[in-house]
């Protein structure tokens, strides 16, 4: 969890998710004729879960080898 919260992109994504969905829940509960707040909650939650997976288990950034270890192709 610590690695996730250190990632700025994930942190801002999570904060936006929590704030926007809190507002949507309040708006929907002020007019409870039809409860719909859970649809954006679920949809965006899938995006948050994918972002968390990418940060915690995703591919590592490619690192270039030091210049002295790079093998140059031979020219003919």
Q: What keywords describe this structure?
A:
mainly alpha
Quick recap of the structure?
The chain has helices at residues 2-6, 8-30, 38-57. With 76 residues, the protein is mainly alpha-helical.
Helix content: 55-70%
Please indicate the percent range of residues in DSSP E strands (runs of 2 or more). under 5%
Q: Give the N-terminus to C-terminus distance in angstroms.
A: 53 Å
Number of strand segments: 0
- The succession of helices and strands, N to C, reads HHH
Number of helical segments with 4 or more residues: 3
Description:
The protein has 76 residues and is mainly alpha-helical. It is 63% helix and 0% strand. The longest helix has 23 residues, at 8-30. The chain starts with a helix and ends in a 19-residue tail after the last helix. The mean pLDDT is 87.
Q: What does the secondary structure layout of this molecule look like, with pairings?
A:
Blueprint: H1 2-6, H2 8-30, H3 38-57
